[in-house]
Amino acid sequence: MRYLILLLVVSCWVSAPSVAQRAPADTLHAPAAALPGVYADPHLAAFGQTYYLYPTTDGTDGWLSTSFTCWSSKDLVNWKSEGVILDLPRDLTWATQRAWAPAIATRNGKYYYYYSAAQSIGVAVADKPTGPFKDPLGKPLVAKGQFQGQTIDPMVLVDDDGAAYLYFGQGMCHVVKLNPDMISFDPAAVVEFKPAGYNEGSFAFKRQGKYYLMWSEYDTRDPRYSVAYATADSPMGPFVKALGNPILKGKGVVKGAGHHSVMQIPGTDQWVIAYHRFKIPGGNGYNRETCLSPMRFDAQGNILPVDVFEPVQKTSIKTGKSRTVRP
Known about the structure:
Blueprint: H1 2-15, E1 39-47, E2 50-57, E3 67-73, E4 80-87, H2 88-91, E5 100-107, E6 110-117, E7 120-126, E8 155-158, E9 164-168, E10 173-177, E11 191-193, E12 200-207, E13 210-217, E14 226-232, E15 240-241, E16 248-249, E17 258-264, E18 271-278, E19 288-295, E20 313-315, E21 322-324
Antiparallel strand pairs: 1-2, 2-3, 3-4, 5-6, 6-7, 8-9, 9-10, 10-11, 12-13, 13-14, 14-15, 14-16, 17-18, 18-19, 20-21
């Protein structure tokens, strides 16, 4: 009898899964999207005491959206629509559709809104983060076919010395220093390069003296869509791809997590990453939703993998204090 009991105990111990073999945490119930409806390519920013999101509008017409909206929040969780801030047929003379992947920057008391339209890159200017934005050029800032790759996905980094750098391109990454007016540059000064795995959605930021260039890999219609990064000592590179990529990717019910932006909560070393995923349920590369998650660094400044199931923290800019908001 003792032998039989011992045999049963040993058998159970051998057949029981190890910690590494146990089922992973629940990946079937993702946190709710930040915005209601289908929005993609979100640019997250903080101006004054308010957070802002500038996304692409998705929908049943595929990628033929014709306008851009802005959303505001005091806590990163509760978002209010500020309405349409740029309507292509109404506000432009050179494009009427394919309003994609916007970005915003501020300099000299003005707000500069960079965006893709008709597969070119435009710029608009306003006195407030919510617009109204006006086209100062009457033509694209970067025209379709002017450089290698597809002319989409602009992003502007304003450095500590006030200099501004424009990043853009699908299939090839481009970077150039903007002129002080923020709406022009020297085409001969554009640097072109393609990091391993680079596809689109470049985003640059600076932390503790180091420049980070991030981008999306694969295609936005691919469930493997993900985000990787490289670092450099200069905003124009050369950038060296980091180990441990990708730092953002889908898992479980979350598919196609990518085309992101990053924001540092003012006055802190807390960081938030905004990105899109396939709409849950039933979404795809044409029906995506905007999400927010915390982003962290290790002691060496490496970006740690983002948990797409971790809820963003409810945080006020004024206090810098936060508390976890459960999904």
